[in-house]
Specification:
Largest sheet: 5 strands, antiparallel
Oligomer: single chain
Number of strands: 7
Shape: globular
Strand content: over 45%
Order of helices and strands: EEEEEEE
Strand order of the largest sheet: 1-2-5-4-3
Helix content: under 10%
Length: 80
């Protein structure tokens, strides 16, 4: 199981890349040893800032959205 609650992350120089993202995964997550990302199955349900897929839920803070990633059928979290 992986649970991330109200995640905040920034890069060198202070540029914010995530704020207030909560991810709860019961099964089916891939996390590299660097913990730089979490890969989960594509969402099966999206309702505003709440997304759900097989074995996981994701809730985005205001000002964040899901957007298509470079790989077809993949998504990423983006700041508005």
């Amino acid at each position: 199981m992986l649970e991330i609650d109200n995640l905040h992350a920034s890069v060198a120089g202070g540029r914010e890349i995530l704020k207030g993202v909560s991810l709860d995964v019961k099964a089916g997550v891939l996390v590299p040893t660097t913990f730089s990302r979490a890969t989960i199955a594509a969402p099966t349900e999206t309702t505003g800032a709440h997304l759900q897929g097989p074995g996981w839920t994701l809730d985005l803070a205001p000002g964040w959205r899901i957007a298509p990633a470079d790989k077809p059928g993949s998504f990423t979290v983006k700041k508005d």
